[in-house]
UniProtKB/TrEMBL annotation:
The keyword Transferase applies. Residues 250-269 are annotated as: Disordered. This is Citryl-CoA lyase. GO terms for biological process: carbohydrate metabolic process; tricarboxylic acid cycle. It comes from Virgisporangium aurantiacum. CDD domains: CCL_ACL-C (cd06100).
Amino acid sequence: MQASSEESARWWSTAIIRMAPGVIELRGRPIQDLIGTVGLTEMIWLMLRGEPPAPGQAVLLEAALVAGVDHGPQAPSIAAARMAATCGVGLNNAIATGVNLLGDSHGGAGQQCVELLQDICAAQADGADLDAATATVVAAWRERSRYLPGFGHRFHPVDPRRDPLLALVDEAVADGVVEGRFAAAARSVEALLNRPDPDRPDRRPVPMNIDGATAVIYAELGFAAPLARGLFVLSRTIGILAHAWEETGSGRRNKGPIPPSILPEYLGP
């Protein structure tokens, strides 16, 4: 049976864009009214949420996006994009190669930390004290994994992005832009992880990292947990693009993961 034009129109129905000859409207706003008047951060918010952000909300979102742009070639997504750029696949393919490595283990901690903070706040809503709720939720998370998303860093003793992000959150709380519930939950987790342990007096501190600090921002701004990963991908794509472009100009061909002078250790018979 042949589909009617009405059925075809409904098949791809969307509240995001109205597009017709001579017309482009994004969330009900003509594109010509947005060009030159709306920044990229505000545009991201508009597309995802349907309404423009308040100025204070835009400041927080932009800070989170800026903080996650890059972490160097030791990050698998960056390294893979740089290798791909030397293989003749084109810049778009190099970027896609890097983005496709942003999964649960590399790039997913922000989403996971939002879920952790949401669990703590949900336990609080049921009447639990914040520290008690934190202890219960953290214990449950550690039954599934010893890794707690958003805390500690394999490279930085203290993540240099943590303090400026949390300072902006504190300012936003003071200005009434966000409530601060998720920031309080994250700090409660941090306090629990760094509580003195007489059995381990030399234990290294476990401070909040970039994933925890941006998770606080995304949660405070009301973004769904999966969007924390999506927004991180948008941010990191900028770094991936920069590295892929730099590598394109290096003149290398078929760059591998280790220099040609180093051979992998053979473990066979």
